[in-house]
Amino acid sequence: MIKCVYATLLLLLLCQCTPDGKGIDVNASTADNNSIQGTIGTAGITKDASTSNATLTITDAFVKPTFPGQKKVIAYLAIHNPSGTQHTLSHVHCNLAGHVQIEREYYEHGALNVKPVEQLIIDPNSKLQFKPRGYRLVLSGLVRELKAEESFEIIFEFERGLSINATVKVKPFG
Fold this sequence. Notes:
This protein is 8% helix and 48% strand. By secondary structure, it is mainly β. The chain has one domain (2-170): PCu(A)C copper chaperone (Immunoglobulin-like, Sandwich).
C-alpha cells in the first residue's frame, strides 16, 4: 500500500512539472507586502501593451485526473488583466473541494519552499501565470474523483465585488 501511494505521488509530480525547468523574470507583489522579484520557476507576470478597459479573464485552467481516494489536486491557470486598474484576488472557492488555497513555490538557499498567499495583486495591463515553481492553486478535501476530459467550475473573488467563474479542464496524463 505504501509503495502504491509513493508511486502515485511521484507520478503526479512528474506529470505536473515542466520539462525545461526554465524561469522567467517576474515583478509581482502579494497583498501582505512580501515582494516577489527575480526568477521564480516558470511563473510570473508579464506586462501587456493593451490599454483596454476590459474586465479580468481566466484562461488555460487545468488539473490532472485524480486517483480513487486522492483528496488534493493542484490547478494551474492564467489571469489576464487588460485594464488600467489593479485588482486584488482575495478568495477562491470550488464546490468540489472543501478548501482552496493560493500558494507560491520558490527556491531559497537551494531548497524548494511553499508559502500560502492570502491576497494576490494583479497589476494593470498584465498576465499572471500559475505554473510549477511559481503560483499554484491547491484544491484539498476533494469530494470525488476527477476524471480525464471532464470540467468543473472554480469561483475567483476579487476586491470591489468582482467575481469570475472559471472552467477548469481535467487534462489526461501524458
